[in-house]
Amino acid sequence: MGTAGVLLTLTLTLVACGSDGDDAPPDTASGSLEQLAATAKCEPDIQTDAAELRQATCDKGARRYVLVTFATARGQAEWLDEANDYGGTYLIGKKWVAVGDGKVVTRLRGRLGGTVEKSSHHSGSSGGGDHEDGSPGHSGHSGHHTS
């Protein structure tokens, strides 16, 4: 067997070993909010359409979630830091996040790939609240706050 045959056999072996069948999530999706929504089989209801982020709700009865795309990785990181205060389950991709019930997010991962992360809710009454000033400027996963 020549060098090309050995390389082909090695490549095919690596591809076969790297596959877990249907249990493996797809490659992490990328693209615009509309492209991600189409991949997720959602008709997005756009809530925020700004230069730094775009946010939409996807509502399929009990399977409601929020899909957010970001202009920059830094914007995504800042949004996630703030959103962490509210708890929840997040599906995180490159410059996008989906937020919803744990079961919904886990199912969504089958279409979009990404990483599932769970955050714990911090309340002011437990002594760990960062918002003890009672400011109304935080309304759940409503997007990015600007100064």
The side-by-side strand order for the widest beta sheet comes to: 1-2-3-5-4-6
Q: Given the C-alpha coordinates, what overall shape results?
A: globular
Quaternary structure type: single chain
Overall SS class: alpha+beta
Strand content: 25-35%
Helical content, roughly? Answer: 25-40%
Return the string of H and E elements. Answer: HHEEEHEEHE
Number of helices: 4
- Rg, rounded, reads 19 Å
Number of strands: 6
Largest sheet: 6 strands, antiparallel
* Sequence stretches where pLDDT stays below 50 over 5 or more residues: 3-21, 123-147
Gap from first CA to last CA = 66 Å
How would you explain this protein's 3D organization?
It is a single chain. The chain has 147 residues and is of the alpha+beta class. 30% of the residues lie in helices and 25% in strands. It is built from four helices and six strands, in the order H-H-E-E-E-H-E-E-H-E. It has helices at 3-17, 33-39, 73-83, 102-112; strands at residues 45-49, 53-58, 65-70, 86-93, 96-100, 115-121. The chain has a six-stranded antiparallel sheet with strand order 1-2-3-5-4-6, with helices on both faces. It is globular, with a radius of gyration of 19 Å. The N and C termini lie far apart (66 Å). The relative contact order is 0.16. The model is unreliable at 3-21 and 123-147 (pLDDT under 50).
